[in-house]
Amino acid sequence: MKTIIHILSNTLLALLMSTAVLAQLNIAVKVPAHTINKANTVCRCQVIEVTGRDNNTELVGLFAEKDKSSKEKRDTRIMDALIAKEKNYLKKGFVAKLEVLDHISADSDCMTLYYSLRRLNRKMKMHDVLNVDVLGSLAGR
Known about the structure:
Layout: E1 3-7, H1 10-17, E2 27-31, E3 41-52, E4 57-67, H2 72-93, E5 95-106, H3 110-120, E6 125-131, H4 132-138
Parallel strand pairs: 4-6
Antiparallel strand pairs: 1-2, 3-4, 3-5
C-alpha cells in the first residue's frame, strides 16, 4: 500500500522547495511503504510560518495523530480542534506573528510525514505531535 501526501499550496511548496517558480499545483510526496507504521494512524498537520518577538521567521509544523477509525470526519474535526488550540497557545505567549500556509493530511504516522516534509526543506521544525487518542482518554472521552 502506497501512501501519498498531497500538498496543494503554492506558498508552502515555494518555502519547502526553496524555488520561486513552480510548474504544478498538485505534487505528491511518496512515503516509502517500509516507513509507514503498522498501527494504521492518520496524521494532520498545519504548516505555519512563525515570526518570533525578535523578528526571526521559521517554518513550523503542528501535528496531530490518531488511530484510524470508521468515524473519519469526527476524527478530523477533533485533530483540527487540537491543532487550533495549540496554535492559539503559541499566539498568546510565544510568537509575534503566525501565518498558516497549508493543511496536510496523511495516512501515516506524524514522524513519517515530518521527515518527508523535512527532506524537502531542512529548515522545517516540528513543534509537537499531539496524540489524539491519549489526550482523549485523559479528558475522559
